[in-house]
Automatic annotation (TrEMBL):
<comment type="similarity">
    <text>Belongs to the sigma-70 factor family. ECF subfamily.</text>
</comment>
<keyword id="KW-0731">Sigma factor</keyword>
<keyword id="KW-0805">Transcription regulation</keyword>
<dbReference type="InterPro" id="IPR013325">
    <property type="entry name" value="RNA_pol_sigma_r2"/>
</dbReference>
<dbReference type="InterPro" id="IPR013324">
    <property type="entry name" value="RNA_pol_sigma_r3/r4-like"/>
</dbReference>
<dbReference type="InterPro" id="IPR036388">
    <property type="entry name" value="WH-like_DNA-bd_sf"/>
</dbReference>
<feature type="domain" description="RNA polymerase sigma-70 region 2">
    <location>
        <begin position="28"/>
        <end position="95"/>
    </location>
</feature>
<dbReference type="InterPro" id="IPR039425">
    <property type="entry name" value="RNA_pol_sigma-70-like"/>
</dbReference>
<dbReference type="InterPro" id="IPR013249">
    <property type="entry name" value="RNA_pol_sigma70_r4_t2"/>
</dbReference>
<dbReference type="Pfam" id="PF04542">
    <property type="entry name" value="Sigma70_r2"/>
</dbReference>
<dbReference type="Pfam" id="PF08281">
    <property type="entry name" value="Sigma70_r4_2"/>
</dbReference>
<feature type="domain" description="RNA polymerase sigma factor 70 region 4 type 2">
    <location>
        <begin position="127"/>
        <end position="178"/>
    </location>
</feature>
<dbReference type="InterPro" id="IPR007627">
    <property type="entry name" value="RNA_pol_sigma70_r2"/>
</dbReference>
<dbReference type="InterPro" id="IPR014284">
    <property type="entry name" value="RNA_pol_sigma-70_dom"/>
</dbReference>
<protein>
    <submittedName>
        <fullName>Sigma-70 family RNA polymerase sigma factor</fullName>
    </submittedName>
</protein>
<keyword id="KW-0804">Transcription</keyword>
Length: 184
């Protein structure tokens, strides 16, 4: 993909997808499929199943594009949430065998990033890591388990031996602290 997509351009594409614009949907897919595949694959660890789930994710994006609200989340955050939730549903639905060993990592890499974009992204990651380190224990570990490894709230409650309501509160407060730390 040669064109860089900003939050605004992705939001515009989503608004066109909400009007059933197939060309906009194709462009949205090209701009975001690698990132969403990475999210799905990180949880499922099986390439073929991840590809199937990703198709279902884009079907949901097509169906729910009119529900996107730019005041609530960025387009990529909204789509990543759909991907994460659909993937967790898949994990709950099936007992999954061990992951594939052959992964086409070209599907995950983001070749559209310029060196300046890559530098900015690495600075953002360093900031995020510093902000995560500044969270009270065990909130950092909990946020990573929830948003990177796909743990459900109930699985976190079991893992950390805490009531479900406490887990929800800790996650909410932890995310708010991260947003404040990162000035979002």
């Amino acid at each position: 993909m040669s064109e860089q997509h900003t939050t605004e351009s992705l939001a515009h594409l989503l608004s066109r997808v909400a009007q059933e614009d197939r060309h906009a949907f194709s462009e949205l897919y090209q701009a975001t499929h690698r990132k969403l595949f990475g999210i799905v694959y990180r949880i499922l660890k099986r390439q073929s199943l991840s590809e199937e789930v990703l198709q279902e994710v884009y079907l949901r994006i097509w169906e729910k594009a009119s529900a996107y609200d730019a005041h609530v989340a960025s387009p990529i955050t909204w789509m990543a949430t759909i991907a994460r939730n659909r993937t967790i549903d898949e994990v709950r639905k099936n007992q999954l065998p061990e992951s594939d060993t052959d992964v086409d990592f070209d599907l995950i890499a983001d070749d559209s990033m310029t060196p300046d974009d890559s530098f900015a992204k690495s600075r953002e990651l360093l900031t995020l890591e510093a902000c995560l380190a500044g969270l009270e224990s065990p909130r950092s570990e909990m946020i990573k388990a929830a948003y990177l490894d796909g743990y459900s709230r109930q699985e976190l409650a079991d893992r950390f031996n805490q009531p479900l309501g406490t887990i929800k509160t800790w996650l909410h407060r932890g995310i708010k602290q991260l947003q404040g730390c990162m000035n979002l």
